[in-house]
Design brief:
- The protein is built from twelve helices and 13 strands.
- It has 407 residues and is α+β, with helices and mostly antiparallel strands.
- The chain folds into three domains: 17-55, no CATH class; 61-295 and 393-403; 300-383, no CATH class.
- The strands form two sheets. Strands 1, 2, 3, 4, 5, 6, 7, 10, 11, 12 and 13 form an eleven-stranded mixed β-sheet that branches.
- β3 and β4 (137-144) form a beta hairpin.
- α6 crosses α7, α6 (231-243) runs parallel beside α12 and α10 runs parallel beside α11.
- The longest helix is centred in the C-terminal third of the chain and has 33 residues, at 351-383.
């Protein structure tokens, strides 16, 4: 990667000789120097955590092979042809419509395949314990459009009511990382089938989606992120642009923690490497417009409000009006969804138990909203963004090519 012009990106962080030796021995002197030039850290512990995070392979190709989204106990199973096509999803597999899968412990999972007028499979809905920890549920909706793009939307629901969602799409060559909201889900999952260790929640959500979409080591050619919504990445990128004027934006995206961990770890799942210098499609360019013909320009506050909206959506399990819906403010929709959720949760409870449950729900929502506000304050402090300042760019797509290791 090209050297950054910033030579003293962390003037407040002075490492002792012993600290430098420790990090260099574990991660390499170049990785340490790159981290110090590419990001800001409050202390040695924060730098060490970041280096560990960026160097960790969360899910290996071997782990990926073990993921079986529809592997269940009993006689019911899905047979795949031994001659697997380059892009095969569960929509291509012979499924019995409205099939019920009985687990060994008596739990039931359901799979529905809807067909269009010509008899072609166009959607798969599934609800149950498919490759998720015991006590968890994954609600999947799989659709394929006329262009051949298959989109999977999954809502994960934990035993204590926590939830989050992921949307991933695949066209046979490009994996689209559309959306992922961990929301109230834990950072790591325990008891995932096929794993003997806790695994990062978002990474596993992506890996499971890739398996259902038919993504393989052989057919994945590139990874595309549509309209990046990761606020820490956007804030860090803006800081890099301010401290390295004149350096190409593509090179600076490569320097972000988001690229060095999230994108690279997505490649790791398939046993692939990520080529440097991604292709960027900025808002206003022909390629960006072609991908988002009806998209409205977003403001920085949109990203925070969208995270808040998703919090209500995942907690209540109800649809919430879009942040940019001019006909219905999302806050009103969220308030109504919360009242409906509280009513459902309190049905049949005593007045005391109902009051306690309402308080628990409100605390859950409030804690999440407070955390989102704290993230905003932390980003502004860390990257020197004043109260009236927003990142220069936050409406763009990023596309990374994948390569085989050593290529």
């Amino acid at each position: 990667m090209p050297a950054l012009e910033t030579t003293n990106a962390n003037p407040h962080l002075r490492l002792s000789a012993a600290e430098q030796a420790e990090l260099a021995a574990t991660y390499g002197a170049n990785a340490v120097a790159d981290a110090l030039a590419s990001d800001r850290f409050d202390n040695f512990a924060a730098l060490r955590r970041q280096l560990k995070y960026e160097s960790t392979i969360e899910i290996t190709l071997l782990d990926y092979h073990r993921i079986a989204p529809f592997a269940v106990a009993g006689d019911h199973h899905i047979e795949r042809s031994s001659e697997t096509r380059s892009h095969q999803t569960l929509l291509d597999v012979a499924l019995v419509e409205r099939q019920q899968y009985l687990h060994a412990d008596g739990a039931v999972s359901r799979v529905n395949v809807a067909r269009d007028a010509m008899g072609d499979r166009v959607m798969l809905d599934a609800s149950g314990r498919f490759a998720v920890p015991e006590g968890w549920i994954a609600e999947d909706s799989l659709r394929r459009d006329a262009s051949g793009l298959t989109k999977l939307r999954t809502r994960f629901i934990g035993p204590n009511g926590e939830s989050g969602m992921v949307v991933r799409s695949f066209d046979g060559a490009t994996l689209h990382l559309d959306k992922a909201y961990k929301s109230t889900l834990p950072t790591r999952l325990n008891g995932v089938p096929g794993f003997d260790r806790p695994v990062t929640t978002v990474n596993y959500m992506t890996a499971r989606a890739c398996k259902m979409l038919g993504v393989t080591h052989e057919n994945l050619k590139q990874i595309k992120v549509n309209r990046v919504q990761h606020r820490p990445m956007l804030a860090q990128l803006d800081w890099l642009q301010r401290t390295n004027p004149g350096m190409p934006m593509e090179a600076l995206v490569d320097r972000t923690t988001w690229a060095k961990s999230y994108i690279r770890q997505t490649g790791d799942i398939l046993g692939l490497c990520i080529a440097p210098n991604p292709k960027l499609d900025l808002e206003g360019s022909p390629t960006w417009h072609a991908a988002h013909p009806d998209a409205q320009p977003r403001e920085w506050c949109y990203l925070e409000m969208e995270a808040q909206r998703q919090t209500y959506k995942h907690v209540t399990g109800e649809k919430i009006a879009r942040v940019d819906d001019p006909l219905r403010p999302w806050q009103i929709s969220a308030a109504e969804a919360l009242l409906n959720f509280e009513s459902r949760e309190c049905a049949g409870l005593s007045p005391i138990a109902a009051a306690q449950r309402v308080a628990e729900i409100k605390t859950l929502i409030q804690n999440r909203l407070v955390a989102l506000g704290a993230e905003e304050e932390g980003l502004r402090s860390r990257y020197g963004m004043h109260a009236d300042q927003v990142p220069q760019h936050f409406n763009f797509d990023v596309t990374y090519r994948t390569t085989a290791p050593g290529a």
